[in-house]
Amino acid sequence: MTEEQRQILIKAQQGEVNAALMYQRLADLVRDRKIAEQLRLIGREEGKHGSIFYRLTNEKLQVGDREAKAITMIYRIIGAKLTFKFLAAQEMSAAKRYAEVMDDFHEMVQIRLDEENHSGILEELSKKAGYRC
Ligand SMILES: [Fe+2]
Ligand SMILES: [Fe+2]
Predict the structure, then answer these.
(1) How many CA atoms lie within 13 A of 127 on its CB side?
(2) How far is the CA of 131 from the centre of ligand 2 (A)?
(3) What pLDDT, in 10s, does the model give residues 78-98?
(4) 43 C-alpha to center of ligand 1: Å?
């Protein structure tokens, strides 16, 4: 792998570990048990993605809470429905971003599918949820 590719993967790894924390924190804010459980499941998958990137980069990263803090604020302001909608779009753009490096790293195929799946789940949650859930 080139140094440039390694930097891309490290950045992606950081995004995944931060996203894992973000989904856990978001789940803590949600009172609907089923929705919270789905968010935790997504969070666990982001954690797995982080591990996959770790195997590629061999770089131990600290979990950052910037996204977790931001989502807490976003959730309080725009509510559940729009927060899930926003995250669905984020997941879709992650899937597209990962598609660009897919040819070089076969691991990206599954990760990309997972992100697309996350996007779909969040779209559904957005339809179901009200301002608060
Ligand atoms: Fe992910
Ligand atoms: Fe995701």
Answers:
(1) 5
(2) 22
(3) 999 999 999 999 999 999 999
(4) 8
